[in-house]
Amino acid sequence: MRPPPQLRNASLEAFRSAFGLAKPFVLAKGDSASGTNGCRLPATNKWFLPSLQSSMEQNLNVDYLRRYGENRVQVERTTHPSASEPEVVDHFTRNDVPFGVFIELLSKQPEQNVGPMSRFYLAQCPIDSLDPGLQVDLPTPSYVLKVGRGDIYGSSIWLGRAPTFTPLHKDPNPNLLVQLAGRKSVRVFEPHVGLAIFREVDGMLGRSGSSSESMRGEEMMEGKEREALFRAVWENDVFGAGEDFAFEADLGANDGVFIPKGWWHSVRGIGRDTINGSVNWWFR
Question: What span, in angstroms and rounded, lies between the C-alpha atoms of 241 and 191?
Answer without folding.
Answer: 18
